[in-house]
Amino acid sequence: MYLQTKGLVLRETEYKDSDKLLTVLTAEHGTLTLKARGVRKTASKIKGPCQLLCYSSFTASSYQGYYSITEAEVIEMFPGLRQDLELLSLGSWFAQAAETVADADAPSPELLRLTLNALYALATNARPRRLVKAAFECKLACLAGFLPELGGCVVCGKENPDGFDVTRGCVCCLNCRDESRGLCLPIDYNALQALRYIAAADPARLFSFSLPEASLDQLAQAAETYLIMQFQRSFSALDFYKGLYQFNEPAS
Questions:
Q1: Residues in contact with 206: Cβ distance below 8 Å, sequence separation at least 6, in sequence order
Q2: Which of 73, 75, 93, 247 sits between 20 and 30 A of 230, alpha carbons compared?
Q3: For the whole model, what pTM was predicted?
Q4: CA–CA separation, 225 vs 101, rounded Å?
């Protein structure tokens, strides 16, 4: 049985002496586990397409319980990521987060588009990396089923409240919040409008907005905290990125 697909390599695991097992995100099949036989050998013809964060076309055949790659060709390698350790670590966080949301045998076209667009934005420095990270995290939460209630304060109904309850996934006035029910972070008008834009935006235009620095700070904190609280787990890739980031000035 043969399989032909295009996908993004989210994870690579060394296997036996010279093989790798790849976790690949595809539009049609969700995540697939593909065996790349001999890919760690210097002369391997599929070494390039099978790298982490590489979007490639794959032909694979069923072999001993795995799909084993017979042919592979690079579509996009995002070279800009591979020249900057901080960007590479941020891209790895995107991949780990996307893998958490994706399911095997479940079509994931929106998730694949979101992740590819985010990696492209990072690799080309098209937008500030903190903006890309925040927008990716917010949109990923929405795709994972955690769409927040952003219409107005859930207590008093005020249209543009100044807080985001990251525990319950809703906006509320800081004066209205019930501290016993969870964590509510401050957000100004610009950050709130950005949250609303991200929740409704098509992935192709997800990063087409800008924010003042103070508002971006609030959006970045809210996005990361909300996603982590909804997933209720830690992520090694995010921890590694934050360890690098604290030693570097934020990039514009």
A1: 114, 117, 118, 135, 136, 139, 198
A2: 247
A3: 0.93
A4: 17
